[in-house]
Structures are given as structure tokens and as C-alpha cells.
User: Which sequence fits this backbone?
């Protein structure tokens, strides 16, 4: 069975708003299909979208904003972690990493955890920011997968 991502999952992984993603759909930059009224995107659709030179600067700006906002905030209400993970992987492994972080962060509705995903050539960059307990739980789950 083919894996599909929703518009909300793409927003979570890219840092872009669902409105921006809908604009990319209208422009033909993001391709997907409506299934029972809900936009669905295959891993191939998502990969092509990430590789689009028009989209890449927007995602990179969002990635940098996550880190910059973390560094610029002098008073935090809770202890936080912001981490960047660069992993050299092939396309299949990058999709697995993307799926893991998207699903794991998506299930954590009680937390304000932000994740961003960027594929650049032979590596994947994941930026993860949130409360220290939440980020450590996610990192522990990731590093204990295999």
C-alpha cells in the first residue's frame, strides 16, 4: 500500500502554512490528489516538491527561522532544545526518516514541538525544537529504531 501524506503533515514537515501549500497546488508546483475531499500526496509527490528550486528557498527560510527564533528568545517559559540532525542517506531512507518524524511529532498534540525536514542531495536535515522532555523522547525513539 502506498504511503500518503496529508496537507497538514506537509505543513508540519516543511514549516510552510497550509495556505502556502494550497497556493503551490494552484500553481501546479505541488501535485497530489483529492481523495474523499482531502488532499493526499505520495512520497514521490513530496520529493518532487522538495526538489523544486522555487520552493527550496522558502523551506530553507522556515528552517532558519526555527533556529533563529530559538536563539533570539532570551526568556523561555520552559526548558527547550533545538537540534539539527544531518544524515547521509539514500532516497528510501530519507523517506523513512521523514515519515518517522512527521508521524511522531504529529502524535504529540499536547506539545509545542516543531520539526522541519529538508532533503538536499545525499543528506537529510531535520530540525527539531521543543520542550526538553519532548525532544529527548523523540530523539531517543529515533536513535533506538534500528
Assistant:
Amino acid at each position: 500500500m502506498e504511503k500518503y501524506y496529508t496537507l497538514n503533515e506537509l505543513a508540519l514537515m516543511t514549516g510552510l502554512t497550509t495556505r502556502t501549500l494550497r497556493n503551490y497546488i494552484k500553481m501546479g508546483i505541488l501535485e497530489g490528489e483529492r481523495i474523499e475531499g482531502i488532499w493526499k500526496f505520495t512520497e514521490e509527490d513530496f520529493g518532487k516538491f522538495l526538489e523544486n528550486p522555487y520552493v527550496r528557498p522558502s523551506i530553507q527560510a522556515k528552517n532558519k527561522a526555527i533556529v533563529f527564533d530559538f536563539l533570539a528568545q532570551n526568556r523561555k517559559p520552559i526548558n527547550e532544545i533545538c537540534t539539527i540532525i544531518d544524515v547521509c542517506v539514500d532516497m528510501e531512507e530519507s523517506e523513512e526518516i521523514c515519515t518517522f518524524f512527521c508521524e511522531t511529532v504529529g502524535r504529540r498534540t499536547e506539545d509545542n514541538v516543531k520539526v522541519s525536514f529538508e532533503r538536499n542531495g545525499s543528506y537529510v536535515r531535520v530540525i527539531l525544537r521543543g520542550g526538553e522532555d519532548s525532544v529527548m523522547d523523540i530523539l531517543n525513539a529515533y536513535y533506538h529504531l534500528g
The beta strands are 4-6, 33-35, 38-42, 80-88, 114-120, 123-131.
